[in-house]
């Protein structure tokens, strides 16, 4: 029997959990002739390979568009799943689809994550609620604008910055300094050549949520349960912004807005993207702020959120590989079923993460096996590698994800935090308040102050 190949592109927690889910699907279906190729993978996917999983790791980075394309075509991959945005914005899906391969991820002309200005233009065209803004290519002009703007303002680099090109500025001095660092000092490279200055949306961190929409490229889509990401490094939403310190869901108090979100935000964006004759395929991610006037869009992404996907998959009762397969191949999508409870994902980070100089690396990680009890807890590798002695070492800022699910939110929070405390590496840090916003809503509804 001819060997089949599924390609997963990326090296974070999102990709490691995708590989794990795909492997479980292959076992259930008895597909022993299918290999999951990970480009490049991490310490967790390497552990899977060494422990008999149908997984192979390859030293091809996600940013290597030519290398990813060559590999997938050589293997005639039956489906390629893209985790990170960079290869999609740079045309990886186009190259693979043009070669006749199925891809989970949009073509370059629909990869709107590559330009926040383009997102704004499309939203204006589709009458989608979002923050007012001005775009600038001249730092002097932008600085003069913010001098008279009501504070706070949000300064955004137009291009890709790995989730770190956004600053909330509460004073003119802070806004002017951010503009200089983006536009003149080029801390984000060419991504900051154009900047957007937006009005600050009232609502706060407790009201910012993520909606993931899986699309089959032929107009069929499914909305997954709403999740809440936590960007700031420290408890209480303090400290520098990061790629994400954890997520929880479902965010039950957003349910009353879901019809509005579907009809006024999701469907209009899918329709305006389809006006060029091509439908979006993959995961469309809407970052929303629930303001006093209702939901408004903060940003759009073109791939599953990390860490939002991890707690979502803890609740999904459908076969995830089947869902991805159907999206990538343009097949009809099934009704989705979810476990009746809550899931919480806590991200453990390395020393120095979120600050200049970057995170510490090559420190030994211990306690993972101990932390995986009880069975409702799952440890997902993110920024890790495995050395020649088969030890797990830190290799990035976000080292490990701890995902727990329970019938109650407080149960999931306590279980995740207890498991996180059992894992150890030098400078380990994690937030202990992931999901606290949901607890506040529960207490308020019960009349507890």
Give a written overview of the molecule:
This protein is α+β, with helices and mostly antiparallel strands and 449 residues long. The chain contains 14 helices and 22 strands. α6 (116-126) packs across α9 (258-273) and α7 (139-147) runs antiparallel to α8 (172-184).
Q: Count the E strands.
A: 22
Order of neighbouring strands in the sheet with most strands: 3-2-1-4-5
Query: Helix count, per DSSP?
Result: 14
Indicate the radius of gyration in whole angstroms.
21 Å
- Strand % is 25-35%
Structural class: alpha+beta
Q: pLDDT below 50 for ≥5 consecutive residues: which ranges?
A: none
Helix content: 25-40%
Task: Tell the overall outline.
Answer: globular
What is the residue-mean pLDDT, rounded to a whole number?
A: 95
The major beta sheet can be summarized as: 5 strands, parallel
Give the termini separation: 64 Å
Which terms summarize this structure?
449 residues, 14 helices, alpha+beta, 5-stranded parallel beta sheet
Summarize the structure.
Helices cover 31% and strands 25% of the residues.
How is the topology of this model organized?
Blueprint: E1 4-10, H1 13-29, E2 34-40, H2 43-50, E3 55-57, H3 65-75, E4 79-82, H4 86-89, H5 92-98, E5 103-104, H6 116-126, E6 133-136, H7 139-147, E7 153-157, E8 166-169, H8 172-184, E9 195-199, E10 208-216, E11 221-223, E12 228-229, E13 232-234, E14 238-241, E15 246-249, H9 258-273, E16 281-291, E17 294-301, H10 309-315, H11 320-329, E18 342-349, H12 368-371, E19 377-381, E20 384-386, E21 392-394, E22 398-406, H13 409-422, H14 436-445
Parallel strand pairs: 1-2, 1-4, 2-3, 4-5
Antiparallel strand pairs: 6-9, 7-8, 7-9, 10-11, 10-16, 12-15, 13-14, 15-18, 16-17, 18-22, 19-22, 20-21
Helix pairs in contact: 6-9, 7-8
């Amino acid at each position: 029997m001819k060997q089949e190949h599924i390609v997963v592109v990326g090296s974070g927690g999102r990709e490691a959990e995708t590989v794990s889910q795909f492997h479980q699907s292959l076992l259930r279906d008895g597909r022993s002739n299918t290999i999951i190729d990970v480009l490049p993978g991490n310490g967790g996917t390497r552990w899977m390979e060494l422990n008999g999983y149908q997984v192979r790791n390859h030293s091809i980075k996600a940013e290597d568009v030519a290398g990813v394309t060559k590999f997938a075509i050589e293997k005639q991959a039956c489906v390629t799943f893209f985790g990170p945005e960079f290869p999609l914005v740079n045309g990886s899906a186009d190259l693979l689809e043009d070669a006749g391969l199925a891809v989970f991820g949009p073509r370059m002309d629909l990869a709107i994550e590559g330009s926040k200005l383009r997102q704004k233009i499309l939203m204006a065209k589709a009458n989608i609620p979002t923050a007012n803004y001005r775009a600038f290519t001249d730092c002097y002009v932008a600085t003069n604008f913010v001098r008279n703007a009501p504070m706070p303002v949000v300064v955004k680099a137009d291009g890709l910055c790995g989730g770190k090109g956004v600053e909330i500025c509460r004073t003119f001095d802070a806004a002017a300094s951010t503009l200089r660092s983006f536009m003149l000092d080029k801390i984000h490279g060419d991504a900051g050549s154009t900047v957007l200055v937006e009005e600050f949306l009232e609502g706060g961190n407790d009201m910012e949520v993520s909606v993931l929409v899986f699309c089959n490229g032929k107009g069929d889509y499914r909305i997954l349960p709403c999740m809440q990401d936590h960007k700031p490094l420290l408890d209480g939403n303090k400290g520098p912004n990061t790629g994400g310190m954890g997520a929880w869901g479902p965010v039950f108090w957003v349910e009353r807005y879901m019809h509005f979100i579907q009809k006024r935000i999701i469907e209009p964006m899918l329709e305006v993207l389809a006006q060029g004759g091509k439908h979006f395929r993959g995961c469309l991610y809407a970052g929303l702020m629930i303001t006093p006037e209702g939901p408004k869009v903060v940003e759009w992404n073109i791939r599953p959120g990390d860490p939002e996907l991890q707690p979502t998959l803890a609740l999904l009762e459908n076969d995830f590989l089947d869902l991805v397969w159907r999206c990538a191949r343009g097949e009809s999508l099934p009704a989705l079923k979810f476990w009746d409870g809550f899931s919480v994902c806590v991200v453990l980070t390395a020393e120095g993460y979120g600050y200049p100089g970057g995170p510490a690396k090559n420190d030994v990680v211990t306690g993972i096996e101990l932390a995986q009890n009880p069975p409702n807890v799952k440890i997902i590798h993110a920024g890790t590698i495995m050395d020649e002695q088969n030890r797990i070492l830190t290799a990035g800022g976000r080292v490990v994800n701890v995902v727990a699910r329970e019938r109650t939110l407080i149960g999931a929070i306590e279980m995740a935090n207890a498991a996180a405390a059992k894992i150890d590496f030098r400078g380990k840090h994690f937030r202990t308040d992931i999901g606290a916003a949901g607890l506040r809503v529960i207490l308020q509804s019960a009349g507890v102050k």
